[in-house]
Amino acid sequence: MALYVQALKSSSEVGSSSIDQIQSQKAPTTGLGFTGLAPLDASRLTFTHTANSRAVPLSNSPEVLSGETCTDHMITCQWTASGGWLAPELKPYGPLSLMPTSSSLHYAIQCFEGLKLYRGFDGRLRLFRPFRNAVRMLDSAKRISLPSFRPEEWVKLVAKLCAVDGPKWLPKERSGHFLYIRPTLISNDPSLSVKRPAKALFYIVISCLPAVDEREKGLRLLASQADMVRAWPGGFGYVKLGANYGPSMLAGDEAKKKGFEQILWLFRNENGIREVTEAGASNFMLVWRTREGRLQLATAPLDRQIFLDGITRRSILDLARERLSGDSDGGEGGEKIEIKERRLSMDDIVAACEEDRIVEAFAVGTSYFVSPVSLIQYGEKALEIPMVEGSTGVYARLFKAWLKAIMYGLEKHDWAYLVDSKE
Amino acid sequence: MALYVQALKSSSEVGSSSIDQIQSQKAPTTGLGFTGLAPLDASRLTFTHTANSRAVPLSNSPEVLSGETCTDHMITCQWTASGGWLAPELKPYGPLSLMPTSSSLHYAIQCFEGLKLYRGFDGRLRLFRPFRNAVRMLDSAKRISLPSFRPEEWVKLVAKLCAVDGPKWLPKERSGHFLYIRPTLISNDPSLSVKRPAKALFYIVISCLPAVDEREKGLRLLASQADMVRAWPGGFGYVKLGANYGPSMLAGDEAKKKGFEQILWLFRNENGIREVTEAGASNFMLVWRTREGRLQLATAPLDRQIFLDGITRRSILDLARERLSGDSDGGEGGEKIEIKERRLSMDDIVAACEEDRIVEAFAVGTSYFVSPVSLIQYGEKALEIPMVEGSTGVYARLFKAWLKAIMYGLEKHDWAYLVDSKE
């Protein structure tokens, strides 16, 4: 498995979107490390349709705002260490039955992914770079001792659930809207021993989440204090484990009480310098002018493995490299922009603010999409970030437009994955 | 709540066992911060006895070794942000029903405790310092945004479940044996929003765990490498969150593959010095002779909050201070021992090994009790630790004997909490 994922990764480091292009490719069975055990196999999916089909709530109705409403069905798939993956089941959405000793509930042996189903302006349903999510869940699973699977099968299962519930829950008249898909992999081992689970459960649900609104004021971020550190080198901040989310809520709540939307997580490096890592559970990007006068899009590098390799982050970097830098035509005003994954210290940001070199900043991720930042509170310092077009900056607006064009089918692009919903 | 717990803690810092003595004391209702909401109340417990009473497995039978076998009953208690705690229910042991979106499964909003029920040589059932567990779960709950409760009520519920299942599952003829109690507090909020849960579930199960055997060879520990760090200042290593356990399994598995029993977790401090923090999920203690020739019992201090404030650790320190140091009569040979919570660097330990100053080392905790350590593998260096009495050192044997005397009723002590099992 490790080798196969590695191969996927390195090929994608080279090209821009090799992972997104492998969707039709067959994975070598022997490369997945569980020869003799049944692999995850989307073609074995069984279908049990609900007899209690529910009404679809209006966008931004209380049911949607609660974050509790899911579509009619879910997919579940059991795994055992002795047999591998059983046949996946599509069935009515409903509660799971877990033993009180399940190690998912005691030792946080759990990981998840988040992606969206988009209803295009052409009436088609699409996913955005779902193989990225699949491969990231493999990384998460490995880190938390959960089983492996073929990314293609994972994506096919996600797409099959979307094909069943998408037409009703995200109908054609809701073009430009989305549903939120939550694939989840948990231990289902009922032993209190702290050990690699012998049973696991993979499941996929689709939730109705509220539309991402344009915030008039932009995000106000509170830089984290030394007594609250989200992740550290040698830890697990780079994967999507439950263990990264619960423990960071306390700091997030304190920020909200003080009137901020999110924590800007800092990391104090080996030289005592405070570096920016991410904003809430989103990646953080900055457009600024360097001291030498170059226009630069900067975001923290992945090398320390202390925050998530975001798919929105990666897509923006890819698009910006292709369309705004180097040999491209440059941005709106025609000025080329340097794209840099680099350490971002708070000292540098403070200095750039004082010297009026900040162009804009934004948080990027599947949930928050591209959210302009208007303020960073760093100790006593309130750093105001420009929002030249009222509620956004030029680049945040541009990246959103580019991404939306792909997600909603206004532009043909191999990052879009069409769901065969037979409508 | 914070104030009340604070009060409990500081009083216990002063006296030796104030927390253990408050069992009959009434907590001030107003001190718990949820006036108007129903508090956790053991007197509201309802009883539904099982109709399918199961056979008690033999000690160390496969059912016991699996870690999956629980007693006939469990206690569950629901909490909601709007109403507080509902009436707790004692009912047949069985699966929990959780929504697939429960934030316990996505964001690791979960914490637990572990304590034992002892069958004394006088035929009585006892708990050991259960208020310590209750107060620690309060600390855990606070860190992971779960609700508060009165420690007395928590302990009463634990004792009530023990009173129902103890007589059958730990009968009088099993004196000197124990069952393992697992109180667990999880979010039961079915919203995918990353937010403080509006619903929670507290439950208690009792598991049959194998007896802790004397290991002939002692524990062999593998010192952690820089690429695997369990906890860090500003994190949550000091509380009993699921998030501390799952992510550390990968390193534990690698240690086992290499023939070691546990990881010895190191922390690289701000000066680049590698300090010992804990062994697996147990605290680490060392008896050595200082360069100045003093006999010293040393263990890492709690101040950085990177490992658990273990109850066995604390009890050994308390007993050693009382019986071996200062004005006491001293240990077996009559030599007094200095008790020190101090930083323990690997460099110091290596030097002490080379200079033959190590007397013994052991890992201490509820699961592993007091387990002598025979070897620490630190990079290329294999540090052999003396075991003067074959399978143990003098002090490990002494602390075990002292603790067992209290746990199994050979010595009357206010750390023992008698369960009223009406046998």
Automatic annotation (TrEMBL), chains A, B:
Q: Is the Acetylation keyword given for this protein?
A: no
Question: Cofactor(s) for this protein?
Answer: pyridoxal 5'-phosphate
GO BP terms in the entry: L-leucine biosynthetic process; L-valine biosynthetic process
Q: Which InterPro entries match?
A: Aminotrans_IV, Aminotransferase-like, B_amino_transII, BCAT-like_C, BCAT-like_N
- Signal peptide boundaries: none
What the entry lists under Gene3D superfamilies is as follows:
3.30.470.10, D-amino Acid Aminotransferase, subunit A, domain 2
An example Gene Ontology molecular-function term: branched-chain-amino-acid transaminase activity
Gene Ontology, cellular component aspect: mitochondrion
Residue list for modification N6-(pyridoxal phosphate)lysine: 240
Q: What are the protein's UniProt keywords? A: Aminotransferase, Pyridoxal phosphate, Transferase
**Which chain regions cross the lipid bilayer?**
none
Entry's family note: Belongs to the class-IV pyridoxal-phosphate-dependent aminotransferase family.
What protein is this chain from?
A: Branched-chain amino acid aminotransferase II
Q: Organism, per UniProt?
A: Glonium stellatum
